[in-house]
Amino acid sequence: MPRREPKLQTMVRERQRLRATVAAWLVVALWAPYAALNTLFPGPTLTYTFGLLIAAFSLGVLLLAGESRQTLSLRLVLPSRFGLVILLAMLVFIPGALLAGRGQPFSALDDLVYAPASAFGQELFFRGALLAAFARLFAGRPRLAVVAQAALFALWHLRAFWVVAPLLALGALLLTFVAGLLWGAQVSRDRTILWSFAEHALFLMVQ
Q1: Measuring CA to CA, how many Å separate 81 from each of 78, 162, 186?
Q2: pLDDT on residue 12
Q3: pLDDT-based confidence at 1, cuts 50/70/90?
């Protein structure tokens, strides 16, 4: 009997690892319908509601597979010094966001409801679920996980090609890739999406 216990424990660990890996791939696969939803954009209410549902489902899948609230960055904690530097560095994009949004009148619904809802859904999915999924799939290579989620975050904004000129759209995708890298690095270090969400919402409100 004592000889069988290590083997049994190994089987349990392998089963847990397999379950976690399958869950991680499922979350990665959910990027496709989420990106399609944002590209088609059937109105802000439907888009942001279904976006939040996709993000919540992704987090639920990972939690059921054994991920913790900490690995999913679902904590309310202060940023580290490193995280604070990144968040402050991100503020250099504020003038550009203001310039992009010039001439648009203030709208309580757009700026106080839709903007935070969109930012919350994106941060829950990309910096919460997707970053954790890639961290699982790229075990031991946290930087690759950050880069991968940033790349998909940028591609999620392909709707820019339907809204502005191609050159401007390429610039928007490049900026969102950089933002995804910086927010991903901050969340990866601090294990909280609170501050990336707050800053993301601010950008959407002012643009």
Answers
A1: 9, 39, 10
A2: 75
A3: very low
Report pTM. 0.92
Total tally of structural domains belonging to the chain: 1
In whole angstroms, give the CA distance from residue 115 to residue 53: 16
Can you tell me which residue has the tokens 């999915």?
125
Q: Does position 102 have pLDDT exceeding 80, yes or no?
A: no
Three-state DSSP state, 45: helix
C-alpha span between 89 and 3 (Å, rounded): 56
pLDDT higher than threshold 60 for residue 9: yes
Give the count of beta carbons closer than 10 Å to the beta carbon of residue 20.
Answer: 19
